[in-house]
């Protein structure tokens, strides 16, 4: 390497080192990640609401006469525990936003620049190679949570749009099924009103421009529906127990519907808070492997590959 190249590379590394230390202060501030933190806090509130609703409904189901609601109550309690796991993942993502910025720009990138300087000064390829690896790794861990949050928003927005389309289709089909010539005017008026309400709601959600609000609304609808059902059961049991005895089956059927809604919400939350970050981590690791030749294969993949190669040799 020529002296001029060493000087230029050294100057660039010093500039990167300085910029990294300056940006480290900004990367650890909450304002830098305000959009991601707002989305995660909305999701956190939704998770807490779902946990409270499922726990309250579990208690309400145990009040049904004859212990007929006990199996459903146990299921609601189990769902509450699973939501707690998703809530822990949300907390972890929120704290990693600022923590990864601190680690990346205050420690890893400056360390990579120092190693790079030594590699340039002493013309050591190995030090330069390690410095590049550390720098790329620092950028990868810093972008991990923002990429995960963005992917989660896209998935939730897509799911929310599909749910709106299904709801509009079923509402339209049901309104057509009940329409008759005698009440065409009244039905048409109500259909128009419902259509305007639906379009207004759609426009309102679209006007917000925030996928986080749409997804939070979806989770809040489930939480409110389950919570209101639990309050309904508890009120019926305490105030008019004879009505409950006559309508136990209807309460059980409604409880099963609410349970299925909770399971649906849990599935979406697990995917967006647990699986998506894991997939992003795997994607980044394999990108590093492609770029820098890092060995990132899990042990079970290595064992499977070794066994396959051994089987081929024996044949």
Fill in the keyword field for this structure.
single chain; 0% strand; elongated
Word description of this protein:
The chain has 315 residues and is mainly α. It has one domain. It is built from nine helices and no strands. The chain has helices spanning 3-27, 34-61, 70-121, 125-178, 184-208, 211-239, 241-246, 248-292, 299-314. Helix 3 runs parallel beside helix 8 (248-292). The longest helix is centred in the middle third of the chain and has 54 residues, at 125-178. The protein is elongated, with a radius of gyration of 28 Å.
The biggest beta sheet reads: none
What's the average pLDDT?
75
- Tally of discrete structural domains: 1
Between the first and last Cα atoms, what is the distance in angstroms? 50 Å
| Strands, count | 0
Strand content: under 5%
Rg value: 28 Å
- Uncertain runs are 176-213
């Amino acid at each position: 390497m020529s002296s001029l190249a060493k000087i230029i590379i050294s100057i660039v590394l010093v500039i990167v080192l300085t910029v990294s230390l300056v940006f480290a202060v900004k990367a650890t501030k909450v304002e830098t990640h305000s959009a991601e933190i707002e989305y995660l806090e909305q999701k956190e509130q939704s998770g807490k609401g779902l946990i409270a609703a499922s726990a309250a409904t579990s208690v309400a189901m145990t009040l049904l006469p004859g212990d007929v609601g006990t199996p459903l109550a146990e299921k609601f309690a189990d769902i509450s525990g699973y939501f707690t796991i998703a809530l822990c993942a949300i907390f972890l993502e929120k704290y990693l936003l600022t923590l990864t910025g601190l680690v990346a720009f205050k420690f890893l990138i400056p360390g990579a620049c120092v190693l790079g300087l030594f590699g340039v000064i002493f013309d050591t390829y190995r030090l330069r190679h390690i410095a590049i690896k550390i720098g790329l790794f620092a950028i990868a861990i810093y972008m991990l949570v923002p990429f995960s949050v963005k992917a989660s928003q896209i998935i939730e927005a897509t799911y929310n749009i599909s749910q709106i389309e299904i709801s509009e289709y079923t509402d339209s089909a049901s309104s057509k099924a009940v329409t008759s010539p005698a009440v065409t005017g009244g039905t048409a008026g109500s259909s128009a009103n419902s259509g305007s309400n639906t379009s207004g709601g759609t426009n309102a959600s679209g006007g917000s421009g925030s996928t986080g609000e749409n997804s939070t609304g979806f989770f809040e609808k489930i939480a409110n529906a389950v919570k209101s059902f639990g309050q309904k059961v508890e009120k019926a049991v305490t105030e008019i127990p004879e009505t409950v005895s006559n309508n136990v089956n209807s309460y059980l059927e409604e409880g099963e519907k609410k349970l299925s809604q909770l399971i649906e919400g849990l599935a979406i939350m697990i995917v967006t808070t647990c699986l998506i970050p894991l997939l992003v981590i795997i994607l980044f690791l394999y990108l590093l492997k492609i770029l820098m030749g890092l060995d990132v294969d899990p042990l079970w993949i290595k064992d499977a590959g070794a066994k396959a190669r051994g089987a081929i040799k024996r044949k």
